Amino acid sequence: MAAIEMKNIVKKYGDGFPAVNDVSIDVADGEFVILVGPSGCGKSTLLRMIVGLEDITSGDMIIGGDRVNDLAPRDRNLSMVFQNYALYPHLTVYENIAFPLRLAKKSDKEIDEKVREASKTLDLDEHLERKPANLSGGQRQRVAMGRAIVREARAFLFDEPLSNLDAKLRGQMRTEIARLQKKLGITTVYVTHDQTEAMTLGDRVAVMKRGVLQQLASPRELYEQPVNLFVAGFIGSPPMNFLPATVEGDQVTLPFGTFPLPAAKAERTAGKGLLMAGVRPEHFEDVSVLEEGHVDTSRTFEAHIDVREWLGDQQYAYVPYEAEATVQDQLKELAREADSDSLRTQLVVSLDAASTVKEDDDATLFIDTDKMHLFDPSSGDNLTVGL
Amino acid sequence: MTKNLKNNIGTVLGCLLILVWCLLPVVWIISLSFKSQEAVTVGSPGFFPSDGGGAGWSNYTDVLKDDQFFRSIVNSIGISLIATVLSVGLATLAAYAIARLEFVGKRFVLTTALVIAMFPVVSLVGPLFDMWRTFGIYDTWPGLIIPYMSFTLPLAIWTLSAFFREIPWEMEQAAQVDGATSWQAFRKVIVPLAAPGVFTAAILTFFFAWNDFVFGISLTSTEAARPIPAALSFFVGADPFNRPASLLAAGAVVATVPIIILVLFFQRKIVAGLTAGAVKG
C-alpha cells in the first residue's frame, strides 16, 4: 500500500499532441480516486502511465515515495483490472488468479492459500477449475479482480472495469468494488466515463477534459461547487440546466423572468453583461406541491410543460425556451464536450412525484436562485464558486 | 422433403467422387505393395492380387530389412525434425517481432521473406552444390537442414505473424503488470495462445522437408544423409535391371506412415478458437 503522487505529468505522442497535459494529482494511502471525463480526455493514458504501460514525457510519478518513471510495470508492484479483463484463456480460473504468485516464485502451499482466500472473497470457489471461455461476463470480471487482489500490490488500478457489463450487473459490481476497496483499504485509482460510477465510488473525483485536469474534489463538492461550465455540465444526471442570464443589482434576468439573487452572488456578478446561469433540475419545483405561504412568489414563473417523465419517486418535466443563436451555439459546444447531444434549448426540471402537471400544459414553477451558479461564458469559470 | 433428399444424395455423391479422385492412387499403391514381384512383371491388372501373385507382408519385411532404406528413414526423420524445430523456433521469434514491434525495415523483412518463397528451388541447386562441397557439408545432415529451414521460414513467418496479430495486446500487458518480464510474458502467455499457429507452421514445414526431392537427390551422394524420396528413386533391390515396383510401393507406404502419425498427433493441438474467452467478444 502506498500513496501515488503525480507531479506535472505530461504525455505527448509522436505528433506533439499532449494527450495528458500538466496533470498533478496526489492520491493518499488507502484513498479511492476516480479519473472521469468524456472519451479522449486522457484518463486512460494517465492510468497507463501510473502502471507503466505508457512512457511519461515529462513530470514525476512517485509511488510510495519512489520515483517510478523509469521502472518497468513488473517492478512497480501495482495490480490492474483491464476493461476487457485480459484473462489468460489457456489457464483455468485457479491458474489465472495464481499467475502473479507463480511469477513471484511463491511456494505451492502459499499460492494455494492465497488463491483460495481470493476466490472466497469473490465467490469464485465453484468456478476454480473452469476456463475463462466458459464464464459469464460478471464471473470473468471477478476473476480479473481476483488476479488483482491475490498479491499484495501497492495499489489497484481499474480501467473502465464495468463498461462491458449490463446495467444491472454493473450496479452490483459497483457496490462489490466499493466494499472490497473498503475492506482491503488499498490505494485505488479507477478510470471511468460514467459519472454515476464516479460519484458513487470515489473518495475524490478528478474530472478531466482534453488532457487537462479540471477539478479534483469530493463528489459532493463537484456537484455543489463545480469550478467551471464543463464540470457543472458533466457531473449530474440529468445534467445541469444552462440559461443565458444578466445580473443587475440583486436581480437576475433569465429567459423566464427576473428573480432576486442572494446578495453575495449578486455582488460578484452584477454588471458583467451576459452570463451563463447553471441551475440543477432539482432546484426547480412545482409550486402546487409546496406548502402555501412558504413560497417566495418573487421566485416563481409560468412555464409551458412540453414532455413529462414520471419515474415513481420523482418526475422530470421538459420546458423548451427560445435562446439567441450565440447562446445556442455555446450550449451545443458544451454538450459536445461532455459527449452528449443537445438538440434544442430546454429546461429539465425535477418535480416532486406528487405533482400533477400535465403535458402540453402550463404550470407555475419555483426556482431556487440560492443554489444557482453563474459562469463567465467566455472562460467558463464559475463566478460564484464557494457561495 | 424430396428437395432435401436430393441435396443429401448430391452431397454423398460429391464426397464419394472427391474421395475416389484423391485416394485411388494411394489405394493402388497399397494394393501394389501386396503383390509379388513376378506378378507385377507379368502383369496383374486386378486390384486384389491374382492367384499365387500375392506377396503377403514379404515386401514390407524386405523393405524394412534393407539397410539403405532404413538409414534413409532415419535421415529423413532426423533432418525434417531438426529443420522444423529450427525453422519454427526462428519464425516464432521473427513473427512476434513483426507483429508487435515497430522497427525500420519491417516491411523489407516481410517482402524479402516472400521473395525467398517465390524463388524457384531448382535454380539454387547448382550454386548450393558448389558451395556445400567447398564448405565440406555436402552429403551431410546440415547440408539439407539449412536449405529446408531457409525455404520454410517465409511461410512460417507469415503464418505465425498472422496468428500473433490476433492475440490481444492486453494479454501481454496484463502479464507484465502481474510481474512478468517481456520474455516470461511471451513464453507463458503468447506462445501457448499461438500454439495452433505454431503447430500449423510446424506441420507445413515438416511436409516440405519430408517431401523434398530436388535437394535430397542433388545435395547427397551416400546414405549418410540421403532422405527417403531420394532413396526410393535409388532403390533397385536384388536385380538392378528390373525395378522392383512392388518393393517400391511398400517403401512408399512405409514412408507415408510417419506423416500420417504426425498429422494425427498435431491435429489435436490445432484447436480453433483457443483464444475464446480471453476478452469480451
Summary of the model, kept short:
Chain A is of the alpha+beta class.
Low-confidence stretches of chain B: 273-278
Helix content bin of chain B: over 70%
Mean pLDDT score of chain A, rounded?
87
- The end-to-end distance of chain A, rounded to whole angstroms, is 37 Å
Name the helicity range of chain A.
25-40%
Structure, described:
The complex is a heterodimer of chains A (387) and B (281). In chain A, strands 6-7-8-3-9-10 form a six-stranded mixed β-sheet, with helices on both faces. Chain A has a five-stranded antiparallel β-sheet with strand order 13-12-11-14-21. In chain A, helix 2 (93-103) crosses helix 3 (108-121) and helix 3 crosses helix 4 (137-149). Chain A has helices spanning 43-51, 93-103, 108-121, 137-149, 167-184, 195-201, 219-224, 229-234, 263-269, 325-337, and strands at 4-12, 18-27, 32-36, 58-63, 66-67, 79-81, 156-159, 188-192, 204-209, 212-217, 241-248, 251-254, 257-260, 274-279, 284-286, 300-305, 307-310, 314-320, 346-352, 361-367, 373-375. Chain A has ten helices and 21 strands. Chain A has 387 residues and is of the alpha+beta class. Chain B has 281 residues and is mainly alpha-helical. Chain B has a domain at 66-234: MetI-like fold (Orthogonal Bundle), CATH 1.10.3720.10. In chain B, 73% of the residues lie in helices and 0% in strands. Chain B is built from 13 helices and no strands. Chain B is globular and about 75 Å long. The interface between A and B is medium-sized, with 32 and 25 residues.
